[in-house]
Amino acid sequence: MKASVFIGTSLDGFIARPNGALDFLPENGGEPHGYTEFIAAVDTIVIGRKTFETVLTMTPWPYAEKRVVVLSTKPIDLTAAQGKVEQLSGSPEEIVKKLAATGAKHLYIDGGITIQNFLRAGLIQRLTVTRVPVLIGEGIPLFGALPKDIHLRHLATRHYKSGLVSTDYEVLNQK
After folding, report:
1. Which H helix or E strand runs over 98?
2. CATH T-level fold of 2-18+32-146+166-171
3. What is the mean pLDDT of residues 22-43?
4. In the chain, N or C terminus with fewer CB closer than 10 Å?
5. Which helix H or strand E contains 114, and what residues bound it?
6. pTM
7. What's the CA gap between 36 and 40, in Å, rounded?
8. How many CB atoms lie within 10 A of CB 142?
9. DSSP three-state, residue 94
10. CA atoms within 13 A on the CB side of 59
11. Helix%, strand%, coil% for the chain, nearest 5
């Protein structure tokens, strides 16, 4: 099974403001930056509860007909969600094992804590980080403390007229 991250950050490395707001991220505005191709290649979105709650406010629903798995140890009201949405809990290894048993092949890992936990567990194979040309000073960081270095191999970097810079990495030191 493959697990990938596709995420936007401020130039100073934050994925959201301290209150979870994403208002510093630009609207796509018709400038393609690889998300459409990326989302077409995944079959399951694994998302943290807080990020899921933010995504619930978006219209249209950004995941179309994709299977969405929300990670939380607390009960979540999924009635407002659209499409195929379910809840799971457990370690990243347990989540991957459960999803593989149901036929999942390529996971999109989303949400700060979720990404950090899957990276620590050695379960991410690819990272695409798009930096937005803005400094917000504080917020929710993409990366947190790590028990050891995680080595990456640069695959490609693209820049866009809007100032976005997107870089793809392969994660090298897996379990």
Report:
1. helix 92-101
2. Dihydrofolate Reductase, subunit A (3.40.430)
3. 83
4. C
5. helix 112-120
6. 0.92
7. 6
8. 20
9. helix
10. 1
11. 20, 30, 50
- Give which of 110, 94, 90, 3 is closest to 50, Cα–Cα: 110
pLDDT digits over 56-115, tens only?
888 777 887 899 999 999 988 888 787 889 999 999 999 999 999 999 999 999 999 999
DSSP H or E run through 126 = strand 126-132
Domain ranges across the chain = 2-18+32-146+166-171
Which residues share a beta bridge with 154? 169
User: And the tokens for 121?
Assistant: 């567990």
**Amino acid residing at 127:** L
Decide: 40 and 64 in contact? Cβ < 8 Å.
no
Q: Which amino acid is at 49?
A: R
Cα–Cα distance measured from residue 100 to residue 130, given in angstroms and rounded to the nearest whole number: 28
Q: Are strands 106-110 and 44-48 parallel, antiparallel or unpaired?
A: parallel
Interior CA angle at 98 toward 54 and 101, to 5°? Answer: 125
